[in-house]
Inverse folding.
């Protein structure tokens, strides 16, 4: 579905299609424990977040050079622009790459060159993108602080910080200090919360990390008081429908609580999370939700408008994009 939209929840490493995993493995001389693309794809049966993360981090081993990050990002922008994405705020996980000896300049230069290349060679000159540095919450707060320090020379190309990886047992409170520091440096803040973790983590993300958006946030529905607050403050939730089904939060897309979140008056957006693993880019998530949850065209238009409003774009560009959403017809 090509309705104009912003994508606010996508991990660049999760956009690496199996074909690219093999191509980079060959180019970088990395041995893979699978013999074919088909075999790799057959492993994409997940039972929960951790079962996905295991294979997601393993596949990242093929990402080694600035060129790899550039090609990955350009490919993501080309495909998502075909599906109507007009602006993307892209997560990346530097700690996972630093651990393999890939240095911060190769990562950030590669990603930013990829944005430029994707826009000039395919996505189109009207498309924009920003980078959000995510801390891995299953690593220490000290490691997060070290990573932020390493990123300081590159802050002209990083719009904000986020928090991802294994959620349960790693509450937002663990990262209060590093988020304080990030805000002092002028960075925006978002965090994954309430994906598998409890509603309390959503509250902590808001109160302690002072995030401007909550990534996922689906477990907020367990807590009526929190729902009231999210409605009152119109906190954007970056919901990822296909991801939630593939990681077992819902048995089928038809069981997803997205319609309930909307009925509660929350500011919901629809995103792909890790499209190469979960079966669809942003437009495909919109189509799936329309088909299985019966969202009307006007509801989908509202969700697309929410994504523009919830983005870190300036007021002028938001107005221009909102006009595009308004004018959209199939
Ligand atoms: O959905 C996710 N949740 C947490 N960490 C992640 N890293 C990539 N995708 C995800
Ligand atoms: Zn995510």
């Amino acid at each position: 579905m090509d309705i104009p939209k912003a994508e606010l929840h996508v991990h660049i490493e999760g956009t690496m299609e199996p074909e690219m995993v093999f191509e980079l493995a060959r180019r970088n001389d990395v041995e893979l424990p699978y013999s074919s693309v088909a075999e790799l794809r057959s492993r994409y049966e997940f039972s929960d977040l951790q079962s996905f993360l295991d294979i997601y981090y393993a596949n990242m081993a093929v990402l080694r050079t600035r060129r790899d990050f550039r090609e990955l990002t350009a490919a993501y922008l080309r495909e998502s622009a075909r599906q109507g994405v007009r602006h993307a705020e892209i997560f990346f996980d530097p700690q996972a790459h630093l651990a393999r000896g890939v240095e911060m300049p190769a990562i950030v230069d590669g990603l930013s060159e990829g944005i430029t290349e994707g826009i000039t060679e395919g996505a189109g000159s009207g498309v924009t993108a920003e980078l959000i540095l995510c801390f891995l919450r299953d690593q220490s707060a000290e490691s997060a602080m070290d990573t932020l320090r390493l990123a300081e020379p590159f802050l002209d190309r990083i719009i904000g910080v986020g928090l991802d990886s294994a959620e349960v047992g790693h509450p937002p409170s663990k990262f209060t200090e590093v988020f304080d520091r990030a805000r002092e440096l002028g960075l925006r803040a978002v965090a994954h919360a309430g994906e598998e973790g409890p509603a309390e983590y959503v509250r902590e993300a808001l109160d302690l990390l002072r995030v401007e958006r909550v990534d996922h946030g689906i477990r907020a529905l367990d807590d009526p008081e929190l729902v009231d607050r999210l409605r009152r403050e119109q906190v954007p939730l970056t919901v990822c429908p296909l991801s939630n089904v593939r990681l077992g939060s819902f048995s089928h897309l038809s069981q997803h609580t997205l319609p309930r979140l909307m009925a509660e008056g929350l500011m919901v957006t629809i995103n792909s999370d890790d499209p190469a693993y979960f079966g669809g880019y942003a437009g495909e998530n919109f189509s799936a939700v329309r088909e299985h949850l019966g969202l009307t065209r006007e509801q989908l238009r509202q969700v697309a408008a929410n994504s523009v409003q919830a983005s870190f774009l300036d007021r002028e560009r938001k107005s221009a994009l909102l006009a595009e959403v308004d004018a959209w017809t199939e």
Q: What stands out?
A: Residues 11, 14, 49, 56, 164-165, 192, 195, 243, 273-274 surround hypoxanthine (ligand 1) (CB under 6 Å). Strands lie at 5-11, 85-92, 128-136, 160-164, 188-193, 213-216, 236-239, 267-270. The longest strand covers residues 128-136. The mean pLDDT is 98.
